[in-house]
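Ticket #4471: structure export looks truncated?
Reporter: QA, pipeline team
Priority: medium

Steps to reproduce: submit the single chain below to the structure queue and open the exported record.
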Amino acid sequence: MKLVECPRDAMQGLHDFIPTETKIAYINQLLKVGFDTIDFGSFVSSKAIPQLADTSRVLEKLDLDNSKSKLLSIVGNERGTEDALAHDEISFIGFPFSISEEFLKRNINSNIKDSIQRLGNISNLVKKRDKKLVVYISMAFGKPYDEDWSPYIVAHWVERLIERFDIDVLSLSDTIGSSNKASISYLFSKVIPEFPKVEIGAHLHTTPDTWLEKVEAAYENGCRRFDGALMGFGGCPMAKDELTGNMPTENMISYFSSKNIDLGLNQEALKESMRMANEIFTKYH
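Actual output as written to the record:
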């Protein structure tokens, strides 16, 4: 079981700029918990996401010597990939592909055709540096725009991307919180057995009353990699005006504990991380 904590996703949509030193302190605290991976920042245009303009400066001050967690950063194009690859501390490079033309335009100023080209170039760059590529299928569980969607379309794109590119992790992303037990069960039950060499993850956004059915559906259909953010802070600012929250990490921890799954987490460090999250995300919004 792998838990990916996503302070990047929690922070990116906030209007008020979180001071760089505050980000450093928070992520260093998360590094003590024992998460498999920390999605800590993004190498994208500072105009697109001003909150993450200090990702390089944050990275310089992270204490990785006593942490088992690996670092993941999001990129939107080849330039961002090269910037991320300049840092040996980063293990995973994440690219947000989407089956929605409108979302790609909003998110990374692209379209499906151009994003396929970008992904090919990014994949080549990542593999040359012996890093791992994480591809997110944004809008995998529905779209807020006037565009066709079905789980069959999603499955088609998963197959197409995996067969064409050297992808290590493919994460099905519920960008607007529209997934339900049926759609999650269908996609994970089909995709995971068909592509055993690729790690299939879940990046699920949710409302407070639907998180359990979503986690349970993904877990029961073979998913063993889950993204979350403590206390459900954050979401996707490019998807639509109102934000659906991230999957609360502490809820997932509770669920997996009920299944007698030992996540190997430092409970005291987790408690302090939650205190800091509440302090930071209620102050900066």
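Status: closed, not a bug. The export was complete when the record was re-opened. Leaving a note from the reviewer for reference: The radius of gyration is 17 Å.
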